[in-house]
C-alpha cells in the first residue's frame, strides 16, 4: 500500500493537509515528473534538477523516512512534492505509483527510472539469488512503473521517459556481475521501447553514466574480501579524473531527457570505453579480465552494505574525501541500505 504525503507551496494558494488537486496549483499548468529511486544519490539530484526546471514532483523510494529526509531540499526548488514509499520490484506496489501521481498532481509528463542496488563482489561470493535480487531492484523496478507510465502518456499524447543505466549496461565489468546483467537488460528494454514509443509522441532516453561521485558507495553491497573490495571501489568513485560530479551529471541527464535525446553518455572514460568496445569487443573483454587480476584476491564473504564495515584507514579516508562529502549532501546517510 502506498503512503501518500504531500505539501503545497506558499504561493497564495489553498493550504490543507490532504493531497493537492490541479486547482490548488494557483491556476498554473506545471509539468509533473515521477522520479523512481529519489530518496538519495543520483535520483535525488535528478528530482531536484527537475524541480528547479519548474516540474512538480512525485518521488518514490522504499524508505518513507528517506523520502522525508529529502523532501525539504526538493520543496526548496518551488515544487509541490508527493512522496510515495513503495517497493518497485513488486508489480502490485509499483504500478499504483503512476496512477497516484496522476490523480494527485493532475498529469504526468516525465518518468525517470533510477531505482536500483549495486553489489560489488567476485563471482565466488555471489549466488543466483544475488543476480535475481539485482534484476528485481534494477530491471523490474524500471519495467513495471515505466510500462504503466507509457500507457498514461499515450493517452495524453506524449511524454518523456528517462532510463538510468550504466557503463556496466554496455560493457561487462569485473566484480559487478549482478549489476551488469541487470543493467544490460535495462538498456535492452529502454532501447527497444524507444523504437515503438515515438509514434505516440513518447521519447525514451537511455542514460549511460560512468563513475559518479554520488556518495552511494557506502550503501553498496560489498562481498568477497569486503574491506579491500570497498577500498578500491570507493577510491575509483572519488578520483576526479575518473569520476564525475553527480550534480553536473544530473543537469546533463535532465537536459538530454527533456530534449528527447536517444542516449546520454556521461564521463570521458565511458565515452572512450564505448567506442573501443564497439570496434574491438574482444580486446576490451581481455583487458577487463586483466583488470580483474589486479583487483583483490577473490574472497567468499556474502555481500553486506558498505556502511556496516569497519572504518577505513586515514589514508583511505583522505583519498575518498569527495565521495564522503557527496554522501552527506545527497542524503546517503539518511537512507542507508539495511544489513541483509
From TrEMBL:
Protein name, per record: SDR family oxidoreductase
Top-level taxonomy: Bacteria, Bacillati, Actinomycetota, Actinomycetes, Pseudonocardiales
Oxidoreductase found in the keyword field: yes
Entry-linked InterPro entries: NAD(P)-bd_dom_sf, Sc_DH/Rdtase_CS, SDR_fam
Chain spans, region Disordered: 1-29
A Pfam family assignment: adh_short
Keywords per UniProt: NADP, Oxidoreductase
Family of the protein in this entry: Belongs to the short-chain dehydrogenases/reductases (SDR) family.
Statement: the UniProt record of this protein carries the keyword tRNA processing: no
Residues annotated as transmembrane: none
Amino acid at each position: 500500500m502506498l503512503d501518500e504525503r504531500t505539501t503545497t507551496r506558499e504561493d497564495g494558494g489553498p493550504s490543507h493537509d490532504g493531497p493537492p488537486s490541479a486547482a490548488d496549483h494557483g491556476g498554473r499548468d506545471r509539468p509533473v515528473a515521477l522520479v523512481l529511486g529519489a530518496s538519495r544519490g543520483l535520483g535525488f539530484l535528478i528530482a531536484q534538477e527537475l524541480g528547479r526546471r519548474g516540474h512538480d514532483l512525485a518521488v518514490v523510494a522504499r524508505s518513507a523516512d528517506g523520502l522525508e529526509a529529502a523532501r525539504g531540499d526538493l520543496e526548496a526548488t518551488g515544487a509541490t512534492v508527493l512522496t510515495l514509499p513503495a517497493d518497485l520490484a513488486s508489480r502490485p506496489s509499483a504500478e499504483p505509483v503512476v496512477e497516484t501521481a496522476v490523480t494527485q498532481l493532475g498529469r504526468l509528463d516525465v518518468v525517470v527510472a533510477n531505482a536500483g542496488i549495486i553489489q560489488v563482489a567476485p563471482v565466488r561470493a555471489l549466488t543466483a539469488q544475488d543476480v535475481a535480487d539485482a534484476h528485481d531492484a534494477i530491471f523490474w523496478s524500471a519495467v513495471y512503473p515505466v510500462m504503466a507510465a507509457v500507457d498514461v502518456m499515450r493517452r495524453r499524447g506524449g511524454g518523456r521517459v528517462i532510463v538510468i543505466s550504466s557503463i556496466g549496461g554496455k560493457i561487462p565489468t569485473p566484480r559487478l556481475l549482478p549489476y551488469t546483467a541487470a543493467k544490460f537488460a535495462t538498456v535492452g528494454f529502454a532501447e527497444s521501447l524507444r523504437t515503438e514509443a515515438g509514434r505516440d509522441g513518447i521519447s525514451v532516453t537511455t542514460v549511460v553514466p560512468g563513475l559518479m561521485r554520488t556518495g552511494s558507495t557506502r550503501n553498496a553491497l560489498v562481498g568477497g574480501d569486503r574491506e579491500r573490495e570497498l577500498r578500491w571501489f570507493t577510491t575509483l568513485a572519488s578520483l576526479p579524473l575518473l569520476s564525475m560530479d553527480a550534480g553536473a551529471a544530473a543537469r546533463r541527464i535532465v537536459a538530454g531527457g527533456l530534449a528527447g535525446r536517444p542516449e546520454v553518455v556521461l564521463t570521458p572514460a565511458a565515452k572512450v570505453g564505448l567506442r573501443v568496445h564497439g570496434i574491438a569487443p574482444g580486446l576490451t573483454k581481455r583487458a577487463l579480465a586483466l583488470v580483474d587480476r589486479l583487483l583483490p584476491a577473490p574472497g567468499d564473504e556474502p555481500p553486506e552494505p558498505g556502511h556496516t564495515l569497519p572504518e577505513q584507514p586515514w589514508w583511505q579516508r583522505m583519498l575518498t574525501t569527495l565521495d564522503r562529502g557527496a554522501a552527506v549532501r545527497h542524503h546517503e546517510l539518511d537512507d542507508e541500505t539495511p544489513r541483509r
